[in-house]
């Protein structure tokens, strides 16, 4: 989670505002790309190229300022700053980006106090709903909705929608349905990447027969201890019960005590509570509760004194935990594969993302929102991330060109997101009421891993669900 301190700068609506609004919307409505302005990689770079033709639709915004507030701090903040440079150069607007680690609390405080930023990068649909409830969030222009329809589709659009009204376009994304492994170790042992859940189980059993403990896991995350288990359970609800049941479970229409959810817990338990399977290179089953999620999978890498762990389920962002210089790639010391479904044709994907949420409808704010929702911006941001931090950023934007990604995990993640069979679902605990999603679910999942029964666990989680 990322949190930031707010430094809001509210712009003043000048007399030229009405004319600028007309210019923005005239440009957007006449653009066949839904405001995309060029498509693909565009004709400029994140550092500011010379071609401003694609930006004329946004109007002359000289003298205007747009403030952005986020929880994405250094060094990941610099690619965001760089991704707006061409927009600033060509429109004349000034984009001020501010971030700190207290973002999630402070943005709510500031919204309720009536002094929010122009735009916030919101990491959870649940937080978006809370911000909408303050009455301070404003709807984006139609061009943004059109771009989301074109470049993201309905699965993503609904996560930026609250009570039937679309408020926020997606920005970055992460893929959680990954299993980390060592391609070199697999090759030496003669193992193959599984393509179904049955094959994953058979591979785990084969590793045990060969004298190994295949899985390593850790859920210790300070006050957030337990969240990695929720990701496991969500992935298995998607795979065993399907997207419809998953959606009803997240909304509370299917209870934690439902046999389908119990089945998913037990399916996870077949891996994480199996003493023959875990906890490779760390300890017994209970050690999962005390091992940090950052350290848990590092034994995958045989060159770092590891090589003791064969399989570790964790999101795409886990790449950042391996030491600099680690050979991460399809033929490297470390890589990841898609956590398979029941059949090869099944392709459920659990993930997360960020949403561009505005608190002002000034023309310069709406112009930036529109640009931000295009494939042009997604490619500029990908290039900036590759140049500044070596990657680590992706988007669900279908116009993102994989050639702009240098990180092999980023390329894999975009490939997974763009698979024609992919059914994407957002992290469930991030959408549930806080008392459940970041409360009882985390806490009781931790108790479950240290010995509490599945039935007791789901009963206690369900009891925390707020009554209507």
Please give a handful of descriptors for the protein shown.
single chain; D-Maltodextrin-Binding Protein, domain 2; six-stranded mixed β-sheet; three-stranded antiparallel β-sheet; disordered N terminus; 468 residues; 2 domains; 19 helices; alpha/beta
Question: Would you mind describing this structure in some detail?
Answer:
The chain is globular. The chain is built from 19 helices and 11 strands. It has helices spanning 17-29, 77-83, 85-91, 103-113, 125-133, 142-151, 154-157, 183-189, 197-209, 227-241, 243-251, 259-272, 287-290, 293-296, 363-372, 375-389, 408-418, 434-449, 454-463; strands at 65-70, 94-99, 119-122, 161-162, 165-166, 169-175, 178-181, 312-313, 335-338, 348-358, 423-426. Helix 2 (77-83) packs across helix 16 and helix 18 (434-449) packs antiparallel against helix 19. It has 2 domains: 17-174 and 351-426, Periplasmic binding protein-like II (D-Maltodextrin-Binding Protein, domain 2), CATH 3.40.190.10; 178-348 and 428-463, Periplasmic binding protein-like II (D-Maltodextrin-Binding Protein, domain 2).
- For the record, the count of structural domains works out to 2
* Structure annotation, total helices: 19
Query: Termini, distance in Å?
Result: 28 Å
Structural class: alpha/beta
Largest sheet, strands/sense/barrel: 6 strands, mixed
Provide a brief overview of the structure.
The protein is of the alpha/beta class.
Question: Could you give the topology of this structure?
Answer:
Elements lengths: L16 H13 L35 E6 L6 H7 L1 H7 L2 E6 L3 H11 L5 E4 L2 H9 L8 H10 L2 H4 L3 E2 L2 E2 L2 E7 L2 E4 L1 H7 L7 H13 L17 H15 L1 H9 L7 H14 L14 H4 L2 H4 L15 E2 L21 E4 L9 E11 L4 H10 L2 H15 L18 H11 L4 E4 L7 H16 L4 H10 L5
Parallel strand pairs: 1-2, 1-3, 10-11
Antiparallel strand pairs: 3-10, 4-5, 6-10, 7-8, 7-9
Helix pairs in contact: 1-15, 2-16, 10-11, 10-12, 10-18, 18-19
């Amino acid at each position: 989670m990322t949190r930031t301190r707010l430094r809001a700068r509210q712009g003043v609506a000048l007399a030229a505002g009405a004319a600028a609004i007309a210019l923005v919307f005239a440009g957007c409505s006449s653009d066949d790309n839904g405001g995309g302005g060029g498509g693909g990689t565009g004709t400029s770079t994140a550092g500011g190229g010379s071609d401003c033709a694609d930006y004329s639709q946004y109007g002359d915004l000289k003298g205007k300022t747009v403030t952005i507030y986020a929880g994405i701090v250094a060094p990941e903040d610099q690619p965001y700053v760089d991704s707006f440079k061409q927009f600033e150069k060509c429109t004349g607007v000034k984009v001020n980006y501010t971030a700190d680690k207290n973002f999630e609390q402070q943005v709510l405080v500031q919204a309720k106090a009536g002094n929010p930023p122009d735009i916030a990068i919101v990491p959870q649909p649940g937080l978006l709903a809370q911000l909408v409830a303050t009455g301070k969030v404003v709807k984006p222009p139609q061009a943004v909705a059109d771009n989301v329809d074109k470049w993201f589709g309905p699965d993503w659009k609904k996560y930026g929608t609250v009570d039937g009204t679309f408020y926020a376009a997606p920005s970055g994304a992460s893929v959680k349905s990954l299993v980390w492994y060592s391609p070199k170790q697999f090759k030496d042992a003669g193992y193959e990447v599984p393509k179904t859940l049955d094959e994953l189980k058979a591979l785990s059993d084969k590793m045990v027969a060969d004298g190994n403990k295949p899985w390593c896991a850790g859920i210790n995350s300070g006050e957030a201890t337990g969240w990695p288990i929720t990701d496991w359970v969500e992935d298995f609800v998607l795979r065993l019960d399907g997207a419809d049941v998953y959606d009803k479970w997240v909304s509370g229409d299917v209870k934690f005590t439902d046999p389908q959810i119990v089945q998913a817990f037990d399916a996870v338990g077949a891996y994480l509570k199996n003493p023959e399977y875990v906890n490779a290179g760390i300890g017994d089953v209970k050690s999962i509760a005390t091992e940090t999620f950052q350290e848990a999978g590092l034994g995958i890498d045989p060159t770092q004194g590891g090589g003791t762990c064969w399989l570790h389920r964790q999101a795409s962002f886990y790449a950042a935990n391996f030491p600099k210089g680690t050979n991460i790639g399809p033929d490297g010391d470390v890589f990841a594969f898609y956590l398979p479904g029941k059949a090869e044709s099944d392709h459920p994907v659990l993930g997360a993302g960020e949403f561009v949420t505005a608190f002002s409808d000034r023309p310069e704010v709406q112009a930036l929102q529109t640009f931000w929702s295009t494939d042009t911006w997604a490619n500029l941001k990908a290039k900036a991330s590759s140049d500044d931090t070596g990657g680590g950023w992706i988007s669900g934007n279908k116009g993102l060109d994989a050639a702009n990604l240098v990180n092999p995990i980023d390329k894999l993640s975009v490939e997974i997101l763009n698979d024609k069979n992919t059914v994407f679902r957002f992290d469930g605990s991030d959408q549930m009421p806080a008392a459940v999603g970041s409360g009882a679910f985390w806490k009781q999942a931790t108790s479950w891993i240290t010995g509490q029964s599945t039935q007791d666990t789901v009963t206690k989680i369900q009891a925390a669900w707020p009554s209507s």
